[in-house]
Prior knowledge:
Layout: E1 3-7, E2 10-13, E3 23-28, E4 31-36, E5 42-45, H1 49-61, H2 63-74
Amino acid sequence: MPILSVFFGIIIRMWHDDHPPPHIHASYQGFEALIDIRTGQILEGYLPKKATKIIKEWCLAHQHELISNWERAQNFDPLERIPGADQDD
């Protein structure tokens, strides 16, 4: 599964040709969750509250890049890396 971003020990991945709704897979210190790209909410799994908050804010800030990657993934095209929440813009 391609890695889209890594920040604060959080790893963000996306599967090619994954099931709807558009989502990412986030892992942090042994916890894993599926996160809805449009809302930043956990669809399945569990993450600590602080990691959940960081990921939600990151998802909403990078929603266009995430949706673009989702569309690429549905076509089995290469995905693009996205700057992490720990990067200065």
